[in-house]
Input
Amino acid sequence: MPEACATRSRRLRGHGATNAAPWEGARPMLKKILTWGGLAFLVFFVAYRPKEASNVVGNIGGGIMDAVRGLGDFVSNLLS
Output
């Protein structure tokens, strides 16, 4: 691109202008807030409701095991 066109293009866009959306700068802060909030909730849940917390973990583990077992059945049926 000739230099004159590049200079004109920069002038039209505004020097230093970016194509980023206005909320792009807020994403890291939002991620940090949600991470710390989730961690605080987790600590509260385990500290004040340990039985319910263990049930939740057990249910999640059982769901993951069911999914893995189903995937294993699928693969073994596929290969047989």
